[in-house]
Known about the structure:
The structure is a single chain. The protein is of the alpha+beta class. The chain has one domain (about 5-174): Thiol Ester Dehydrase, Chain A. Helices cover about 35% and strands about 30% of the residues. The protein is built from three helices and seven strands; from the N terminus they run E-H-E-H-E-E-E-E-E-H. A five-stranded antiparallel beta sheet has the order 2-4-5-6-3. The radius of gyration is 18 Å and the shape is globular. It starts with 12 loop residues before the first strand and ends with a helix. The mean pLDDT is about 95. Bound molecules: coenzyme A.
Amino acid sequence: MARTSVKSREKARSVDDSKVTMTEIVLPQHTNALGTVFGGTVMSWIDVAASVAAQRHAGSICVTASIDELHFLKGVKQGEIVTIEANLTCVNNTSCEVMVVVSAENPIKRTKFYTTKALLTFVSLDSKGVPTPMPPLITEGAKQKTLEKQAKIRRDHRKKLKAALLKESKELLS
Ligand SMILES: CC(C)(COP(=O)(O)OP(=O)(O)OC[C@H]1O[C@@H](n2cnc3c(N)ncnc32)[C@H](O)[C@@H]1OP(=O)(O)O)[C@@H](O)C(=O)NCCC(=O)NCCS
């Protein structure tokens, strides 16, 4: 049975309404033995930025359901500044996809470079922890429309992947 709630009847919200821009500076406690940022720290920043975007849109608590593969293309050194930008690409029923783009800059050299991109799915929960519908997303312009279309395709892929993982987990525990 389709889930409905007050939220699903709430006014649709634009991508910009929930956009998040987070800035961090790479401090000694964020680095690995090479003096570049530790991957897990960047993953945590990504999850925080995406979670804020999802919750701003949903108006409810949202949990991370999945994170697609991550590739770190360039290391970020201690003292460099990291910008984490999160935007919703698509809202389905109780879930949404958030795209996070991470870039970095060296303030002394005045250089800026791309580090990674992440795609996360969040599920909106009600006070009992049950998935609950989110308000619809308004996508504007060619770029947002294309991202939304691509997100719908990725959603179908994730559903198949989740079914396979559930099957595998039963086999692993038997
Ligand atoms: C995410 C979670 C709430 C989904 O619960 P569930 O009972 O499996 O929910 P359903 O099968 O009814 O799916 C609800 C929605 O989540 C989506 N979803 C569920 N699992 C997903 C996954 N692994 N990846 C992407 N989307 C997923 C479904 O597609 C559905 O979306 P829709 O309503 O927009 O169509 C549940 O698996 C959970 O609590 N996981 C742990 C979350 C967590 O602790 N995260 C880390 C810390 S925040």
